[in-house]
Amino acid sequence: MKNTLLNRIYPWLLGVILLIVSFWLNWHVGMQGYENILESIIQFSGLVIGFYTAMYGLVFIADSKLLKTFRDNDLDKIFQSNLIQSLSFSFMAYVVSLIMQALRFNSSIVLRLNSLHFFVKWNELGFWIWIFVVGVFVGMSYRTIRLLLKMLFYTENKAKRLPSTSDFENDQEKSERLSKIERSK
């Protein structure tokens, strides 16, 4: 588990790529199914926030050998950074989606800056911000889930990992496999 440049930037790249694709496909606030997408993102981000909170709570409460290994290899900062970024963008996706639901019927607002008047279509500007935030949110969620899966299946010694069994394993194969494990201890 390394914090390579690609690992740090691919969530941001995914947000930019999703933004470019949405321009190219001419997605807009009035597209069919937009409200359903907003509702789905709100529900999904809420689930992700709950999952992160529960999962990281279990990881930190357990104070496992894995966390000690992380500290020994200076990976705890990467872990903490991923946690903060993932939770931040989960909340951001949630809040921006809620704002977009509120703005879907309010198309424009006039801003006054001294004698200049700016006519801003908030729902369109917000839509492009929302697209970027959702792209980054999906990328960070994937990165975090990948990290959590690595933590879940982490073993100090690969040789101690039990080989997987299949439905076709007979009793003799099972006893041979178990005796090999006993001999390796």
Overview of this protein structure:
This protein has 185 residues and is mainly alpha-helical. It is built from 6 helices and 2 strands; from the N terminus they run ααααββαα. The protein has a two-stranded antiparallel sheet with strand order 1-2. α2 (34-62) packs antiparallel against α4. The longest helix is centred in the last third of the chain and has 31 residues, at 122-152.
Top keywords for this entry?
elongated; mainly alpha; 6 helices; single chain; 185 residues; 2 strands; two-stranded antiparallel sheet
The Rg value, from CA coordinates, equals: 23 Å
What are the segments in which pLDDT stays under 50 over at least 5 consecutive residues? Answer: none
Report the strand count.
2
N- and C-termini, Cα separation: 27 Å
Give me the side-by-side strand order of the main sheet: 1-2
Instruction: Tell me the helix content.
Output: over 70%
Q: What is the string of SSEs from the N terminus onward?
A: HHHHEEHH
* Tally of individual helices: 6
Biggest β-sheet, characterized?
A: 2 strands, antiparallel
**Average pLDDT, to the nearest integer?**
78
> How much strand content do the residues show?
5-15%
Q: Return the structural class.
A: mainly alpha
The general outline is: elongated
